[in-house]
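Re: the 330-residue chain
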Amino acid sequence: MLRQQVLVEISQVVRFDAYVWLLTDPETSVGSAPLAGVPAPLLPLLPRLIGLKYLSEVNRWTTLASPLATLHETTSGELSRSRLWRELLGSHGIVDIASCVFRDRFGCWGFLDLWRTGAGTHFTESEAAYLTSVVEVLTTALRRCQANTFVVRPMRKTSRPGPVVLLLSPVLTVLGQTPQAHEYLRALVPPVDGRAPIPASAYNVAAQLLALEADVDRNPPSARVHLSDGLWVSLQAARIGDAERSTERNIAVTIEEASPTERVSLFGRAFGLSPREIELLSHLMTGTDTKELARRMFLSEHTVQDHLKSIFSKTATRNRRSLLARALGT
């Protein structure tokens, strides 16, 4: 796996004692596929850890002005300015966090937090410079990895039921789930040693809902994530119950197969298509011919053909049929 290999390489230059690396939905920037190595005492506190990460404004991946920032540098040594550190990580010996965001003009593809423990051992300028130097190439690599998941899906004997629902408390404790949730969660974050799957992806979209309600971030509480064999699913979080007691209501997280429109939008970003090319691809989904495409997009037929050639080149497809098969997974 790319992220695991990269962490090994980074560790040769920059020492870190724990890490959290999430892939994100490029449009909403919400975490969807986590890879983490955190101290054992924090594992039972995972819902709280994720919730505080989304509610902390200091060095939040959605607002970083540069690809990398360290908590010690941003706060001038006053780490308590970070809610995540103040309410949780400070008591677990974390003395600095290097935060990287992997963003390009097509969207946000992930974020990485490297944690360091030990008094007086914050990240140095040279270490921060090294991390900054690898962000751009890693961003491209992460986007290409997402593009590679768009394959023609194998025939299935039965369709997956949906939507699957998880019920979380206001503090993100799992209260219940529909019977099929176990299968989805196991595929999203494969458990180890036969343990029950951890609903980390569900925690992330629910935590984004908390951030939206607290006016920390304006992105919707939803994320698309690749499950397996070209299957993409969409997760969304919403409150249920009495509207007058909003912050005390439980949270429902739904997981269902991504719609064709959701797939095409993500497909276009992953392959680096222009907005105009994504628009054309959306029209192709309806079986529109070149003449009608030109009319709808106020273009000449020649220009439409030029756009198609560009799309075929970027997506390594040869015709409309193979393009749609890959974009839609059919």
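Residues 2-148 form a domain with the Beta-Lactamase fold (CATH 3.30.450.80).
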